[in-house]
């Protein structure tokens, strides 16, 4: 059944495509690990990082993260390298001269790119967040430990009518200081709680409020209540006060969606980061199709000098693609560009360039 749609020449191109892609991944893995070891070795020794954790936690997260980040570059280089080599060895001309249209010639490329897209999408949604959690957890202990990883002056809305403020929060002790909670009925304040200290009880899964004062307001009547300690359930967790780098990239897709829903109510100012991380996981794998189209269109013509010129142009364009991702991200974070538009911009721009190159490609 499969042979009805994929012919012998298609299998030939698919094997070349995927084989070159995997070989390029292997080369990049060796290179980035060597450079990273040379950069991080002093940190590993300084903080006495166990070798087993370096391998099973740090590099188990580091390698998938960077292969995923550099996959557009790796994919583009792989397509250009083997396609330019086919053109240089005069393999493409007989295929097109035999009555195969250029669109039909692209079919095995897009079968291969679909496989890469599917693997990348699954990795983004289910694997990379887990491996990122391993890597970030290791870095926060053995590479760049922070003496203070907690937020200060935090304002948060935890439900429709309840607002909280914490002056400072210690994520090691799981304790917050100068805690204020206000409850409203419409525009009217009905209760205000002030406490010197609030602590997370991991056993009870509740917050313990210490040395508190509650002010109840009922029209013109007010009632003040003091206490030393009481337990309460609030829709917030210690993780909400962490400020580690890349913390959202270590969230599972379910955790990310849950955090986005809560952020709609809380308004703590991280919605752009959360939505960017979410949309990146779904949209960036599309680069497999965009860069494959560009790569084939660029390298299918036989040129003097062999594969050197197409490969150089391909490396330049793939780095430009990665830089465009960073620019669109910064425009979203600093310029207010909607995250969904920001993540689509690189694929739209380079997709248009790919269509133009396809029109100009030899048929």
Describe the protein's architecture and organization.
This protein has 363 residues and is an alpha+beta fold. It folds into two domains: 2-144 and 273-360, no CATH class; 152-243, no CATH class. It is built from eleven helices and six strands. It has helices at residues 8-46, 51-69, 71-88, 92-97, 102-105, 107-143, 253-266, 271-283, 287-299, 308-335, 339-360; strands spanning 152-159, 162-170, 175-185, 188-201, 206-218, 221-232. A six-stranded antiparallel beta sheet has the order 1-2-3-4-5-6. Helix 7 runs antiparallel to helix 8 (271-283). The longest helix is centred in the first third of the chain and has 39 residues, at 8-46. The radius of gyration is 27 Å and the shape is elongated. 29% of the residues are buried.
Properties at a glance:
alpha+beta, six-stranded antiparallel beta sheet, about 375 residues, elongated
Topology record:
Blueprint: H1 8-46, H2 51-69, H3 71-88, H4 92-97, H5 102-105, H6 107-143, E1 152-159, E2 162-170, E3 175-185, E4 188-201, E5 206-218, E6 221-232, H7 253-266, H8 271-283, H9 287-299, H10 308-335, H11 339-360
Antiparallel strand pairs: 1-2, 2-3, 3-4, 4-5, 5-6
Helix pairs in contact: 1-2, 1-3, 1-6, 2-6, 3-9, 3-10, 6-9, 7-8, 8-11, 9-10, 9-11, 10-11
Radius of gyration from the CA trace? 27 Å
The number of distinct structural domains comes to: 2
What is the percentage of strand-forming residues? 15-25%
List the helices and strands in order.
HHHHHHEEEEEEHHHHH
Structural class: alpha+beta
Largest sheet: 6 strands, antiparallel
Report the helical percentage: 55-70%
Question: What's the total helix number?
Answer: 11
Query: End-to-end span in angstroms?
Result: 29 Å
Task: Tell me the overall shape.
Answer: elongated
Mean pLDDT: 89
Low-confidence spans: none
Instruction: Give the strand line-up of the largest sheet.
Output: 1-2-3-4-5-6
How many extended strands?
6
